[in-house]
Write the structure tokens for this entry.
Amino acid sequence: MTRLRVLICASFSLVGLVTATAAAFSPDDYKPGNLAQPYAFGEKECGKIDKNEIAVATGNSAFRVSAVWNGEKRPTPDRMKALLYFVEKTRGIKFDLRTVFGTEVNVTDEAGRDYWLPIQAPIFQAFKDEVGPVKRATLYVAYFGCMGEQIAVVVNEFQAGQN
């Protein structure tokens, strides 16, 4: 990392409770992986519940992944915002996740699969400036939960280039 940012990060304890705090970012909290892993975890969790229920992450499901941003962004869809709201309320988070993750970016993983990922507002401008379209980046992502077929995997931080 060429800079240190203080961000709102999801931290995962050994007992599996998720808490959100303003904390210094630590890449050691994210295990190496690919974008399919947090989504597979979410699909497994969603498979255990009724389509009208919500599953909220209870373990360490944070990954360091490689992806290319294709330059597309959009406002986070209402269904994702609803899921983020329920994660916020379930975990007692004291800030509005719908605002923090108000923008999504479209990225392509190494296998050529596209994903729309909510990205933290405090890092979005730096992401645009440092990564830009069609450049590979390391994304620090976390699975937050699922509702129906909606799976929340969010970008907490990034590093331009590949590790």
About this structure: The chain has four helices and nine strands.
